[in-house]
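User: Predict the complex.
Assistant: Input components as received:
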Amino acid sequence: MALKLPIYMDYHATTPCDPRVFETMRPYFTEVFGNAASRNHQFGWEAEEAIENARKQAADLIGASSKEIVFTSGATESDNLAIKGVAEMYYERGDHIITAVTEHKAVLDSCKKLEKRGFRVTYLPVGSDGLISADDIKNAITDKTILVTIMMANNEIGVIQPIAEIGKVCKEKGVVFHTDATQAIGKVPFNVSELNVDLASFSAHKIYGPKGVGGLYVRRKNPRVVLVPMMDGGGHERGMRSGTLNVTGIVGLGKACEIAKQEMPVENERVFSLREKLRKGIMDEIPDVYVNGHPTERLPGNLNVSFAYVEGESLLMGINDIAVSSGSACTSASLEPSYVLKALGVGEELAHSSIRFGLGRFNTEEEVDYTIGRVNEAVNRLRELSPLWEMVQEGVDLSKVQWAGE
Amino acid sequence: MAYSDKVIDHYNNPRNVGSFDKKDPSVGTGLVGAPECGDVMKLQIKINPDTQIIEDAKFKTFGCGSAIASSSLATEWLKGRSVDDALAIKNTAIVKELNLPPVKIHCSVLAEDAIKAAVRDYQQKQTTEEPKAEEAAVNA
């Protein structure tokens, strides 16, 4: 098959809708268009049936029961609902929340907002591998702690936190445990019972479903978790999220979950082997390339690497027919390099030099071969252009240079 | 973010990439920026001692495409200029020529700084006694 350009290798940002998902959604735009809350006619019943089918598909993927799934507009809303909903429900029990510095902004900014309302938040640091330990959580929990929120897989560096161990600690201490599992659910095995998770956020568009729809798992037993809703109105989703259900999107989410469950073992192995081919193809050829985050405790499709002495955005320009992303400040609106890489203690220079490759369902071996060639060519070219590379070749220790710009 | 055609052209075909011997008394070297900030530019000028005209200029840049383009353009503009004329190159002219968006203005500022630093280095070498010229360059 001929190589089609540009190549998409940014699967952590979003994924294309799987054609099977799209086909499943199709009738729900025009034919089965009813409001799932219409209880007194065929149109409503059909919509409701579709919703309940999707709810089951989502629940099956994570080992939950259907009644524990609340549909939302996506993982950002799910994170907001989980964190603020718990805080508002349990504030009489305590005012302390524990999270980590590498969380997604939807979690961090929800926590910051709660701080303004008087809650206290502990932002745990991570190790140089990007991981936190269950002991860190245990030591941070006080009798005022009402929520621990730790993501399962990081969106930038792909590292997978020891969620089962953290869940065990939280259960022992009787603290509600939320995980932003947006990058994990559908990508790696996830079971709410085995992990002792009370709340879990997920999103359809990260798992080959449509954008604008996601869900929140809310535990109903041992313990029963209750949330104060963010959205008030018709009392949909057991009162936790009012608003007419996005039937088409939810049908797509359900189908995406079903496919993920069926194909995960085979797909993971394939994506992992592509990732490893890419990693070796780059690192065997080019010196001074560093993997960011734990080498093995990471998503099969994630490769986040820093190319020393080459700035990330210039590298993106050099491989402009391959869609990836960079932790370089120049690619962010804030002009700050990635806060996740900074939290790992990666030097700012290496944060500026980082590229995130996100491989997924539709990547091919030809695409990986092409990418290896393009990346290696661009890095070599940019190093020839780099005064830092030149200085290092001359034996200069860059850390000892007094930079004019400092 | 979309880059201007001129930035892309300089990025794909950077002019005057390379290095002169920084100990050469006719060479002025400017090294500005810092790796932590994501931009380091090394800009060198080679001056004809008789005419005091910049005969050649070279650069190497660690930075985004706009930083590479700004320094590449600066070397083009420097050739054939007197030292005084070199100092007349303003970052705003680079911004205009390359159509840099506001977030990339600092790249042009860095290029202007690099020109000034290279001229300063050359001038320092001239005021120093001949035998000490080498020492000054090493410290530069």
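The CA atoms of residues 16 and 96 of chain B lie 21 Å apart.
Let me know if you want any component modeled separately.
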